[in-house]
Write a structure and sequence with these properties.
five-stranded mixed beta sheet, alpha+beta, elongated
Length: 156
């Protein structure tokens, strides 16, 4: 049995943290907060959106805010966390600032996406109206928007 844990935190896009110098981990699931030390029984749980805390090399405390995820302990010393999104921090204050900046960036992206969706929707409605506008030569009273054989000048 090892005196340290190997901790890996990953998102679909990247590995946020990977070290074998972790002495203790604190996490949170639906049942509440729990700790993991070397020699822990194999374990699998779904994490709630929370802040993970662990003691790294030299006893330094480190943090990672996770949106949600799955934590797995294997062989009593390997901890793998797969999460949708996460932010690392050296202190809780720094982490709070980073989370706020990430949240604002995400909200800005959502706003830009909504503006683009609205623009595309309006463009589609204008195009439909152009094709559905009554025209003088359409047989059913609706213009197709394209010139047909009946649309040519009869005087030529």
């Amino acid at each position: 049995m090892s005196a340290t844990l190997h901790l890996k935190i990953a998102t679909p896009a990247s590995v946020l943290f990977d070290s074998d110098q972790v002495t203790a981990l604190r996490a949170e699931d639906e049942s509440g907060s729990f700790g993991i030390l070397p020699g822990h029984i194999d374990f699998l749980t779904v994490l709630t959106p929370s802040v993970l805390r662990w003691h790294g090399a030299g006893g330094r405390m480190q943090y990672c805010a996770v949106e949600a995820g799955v934590l797995r302990v294997n062989r009593g010393c390997d901890i793998t966390i797969a999460c949708r999104d996460g932010v690392l921090g050296e202190s809780l204050e720094q982490l709070e600032t980073q989370i706020q900046a990430a949240r604002e960036k995400r909200l800005d992206a959502v706003r830009r996406s909504r503006v683009e969706q609205t623009r595309i929707h309006a463009q589609a409605v204008r195009q439909l109206l152009r094709y559905l506008r009554p025209g003088p030569t359409a047989a059913n009273g609706l213009s197709t928007g394209a010139a047909g054989p009946d649309d040519t000048d009869a005087n030529s």
